[in-house]
Description:
Elements (H helix, E strand, L loop, with lengths): L1 H22 L9 E5 L2 E6 L7 E12 L8 E8 L5 E5 L5 E7 L18 E6 L6 E12 L14 E7 L4 E8 L14 E2 L5 E7 L3 E5 L14 E11 L4 E6 L10 E5 L5 E7 L18 E4 L4 E10 L10 E2 L4 E4 L1
Parallel strand pairs: 2-12
Antiparallel strand pairs: 1-3, 3-8, 4-7, 4-10, 5-6, 5-9, 6-8, 9-12, 10-11, 13-14, 14-19, 15-18, 15-21, 16-17, 16-20, 17-19
Amino acid sequence: MTRSSRRWPIVLFGALLCALALLLPARAHAQTCSATVSPISFGVVSPITRQPVGGSGTISVTCNWTVVSLAPTALVCLNLTAAQPRTMAMAGGSATMQYDLYSDQAHTIAWGSAAAGTTPISVSVSQPLLGTSNTVTFPYYGLIAANQPTLPTAGNGDTSYSHSFGASETSLTYGYYLLGLLGPPGCSSMTTSGGGFTFAASATVTNNCSIGATDLVFPSSGLLTKSLTATGTITAQCTNGDAYRISLSGGATGLPASRKMTLAGGTARVAYQIYADAQNQTAWGDNTGGTTAVTGVGTGSTASYTMYGLVPVQSTPQPGNYSDSITATISF
């Protein structure tokens, strides 16, 4: 009886050790957090519009816990140390495009760094009820600054601009805490490093042009025994480095070398011509019939070209209002 009673504590202790062993994980899992950031593409950008261009990407943050954790919430901070405003560099060139990245869609909170005293992007991740890992995905935003009309293209074609963020410009810090008792803390107090993360920003600057024109209005005349002159203006704005050509149509005749104005409500006509020079030597047309189209290379700013109109001496037709409609076309 005595021996039997002495065995009970040993058996119970052994059973208790076995129960505790079942409650403990087979191996320890470190509490860590990591992040992946998708590239952000702004798509096609036309600088001459002077408009800002927005874009967005996504951030995925994953945190792990041990089976038994007294800190079920993790604060993860993503820091960008690159100088602000940020720039994308032209492929094969030295030009740069200004842009920035933001945590909010209204573009009011720039993505910065706790170390620099600016605002990193941060997110709280909670331990799931079942399992030891949780992933949270959310957007971030970018905006190319307005009023950059002189951004160039290369080779007279669409040109890529980009910025690749490496580990030297990024850092991930995180910490675990008990919500409500010890937190939430701020990013400045996060000391556990998750290393850097990489991603890229890109945009394509496209060749683009806009064109405008004023009317040519000749003075009234009773007889066409003297030539009549008038001037008008063609305006063109093209992407910096973009070659272009401006052609003028032939109007009612369809022949740029032989333009005629037609009487309103009638068939009578008055011959006239539009020249690219004040000496009336170069007829402005479409490179047919001895006419010449005007060419140029864009700078991003508006260029102005004078049209010189001439009604030569000719037989005077019946009185009335004469007009023609010319189409100015810019090719690039």
